[in-house]
Please model this.
Amino acid sequence: MIRIRSLTKSFGALQVLKGVDLDVHRGEVVSLIGASGSGKSTLLRCINGLEDPETGLIEVDGALMGRELRGGRIHEVSPRRARAQRAEVGMVFQSFHLFGHRTVLENVMLAPRHVRRVSRDAARSAAMEQLERVGLADKAGNYPRQLSGGQQQRVAIARALCMRPTVMLFDEPTSALDPELVGEVLDVIKDIAADGATMIIVTHELAFARDVSDQVVFLHHGTILESGPPEQLFGAPRHERTRAFLQRFT
Ligand code: ADP
Ligand code: MG
Model:
């Protein structure tokens, strides 16, 4: 479903991604862990097209984007398909970014209405379906400020799901939440995973990552130092740096 090859990305003189290769199969849940500044968000932002790759290839569900070095020259790979790809990738951020002057239902309906151009009725029923899924159908008429942080993040998840993405990316979805609200959001993400969604989750909730992931990837200074099934990565990490990182959380 996702294939990344030799992905690099720099901001000015700072190379943030230094040649990342990653495969995510359909229905697979991948947790991306690593220290702050290691490039986790940049990697997600490249996958959903918020950042352009510097060099390398990213393929999502058959749509290819990126820049390839051929015959000593950089070739742009299909920018039109890259734009189409953006709508196929759902992303949930640390901060929820809901529109405060719109109801929960309106927030979830917006993107399908304006990006997919679906009818009001169809957008409404799709939105209600997703709100149901995250357990917030009864809050449809409320405004974001009337909801807890955990509920707002669940609305943000419903909003992303409403676009029927082929891939879901979560960037530290519980980092902004009070500890007692983390569980309800992780439960929703777990449900979505159980429904067979393909997803990449950046998280510091290592117990959750261990529980939900098929594959765990440890990013260190812009390279994937180690990856594998959770039992292996958490239980028998091969690299000293992976061990050092994991020890900070236990
Ligand atoms: P992580 O999510 O793992 O904490 P990021 O991908 O956010 O790491 O950032 C990796 C590095 O890239 C950091 O040093 C950060 O300051 C830098 N960086 C990220 N985005 C930008 C940007 N738009 N402009 C300049 N530097 C950036
Ligand atoms: Mg980040």
In short: The radius of gyration is 18 Å. The chain has one domain: 2-248. The longest strand covers residues 14-24. Residues 40-41, 171 surround magnesium ion (ligand 2) (CB under 6 Å).
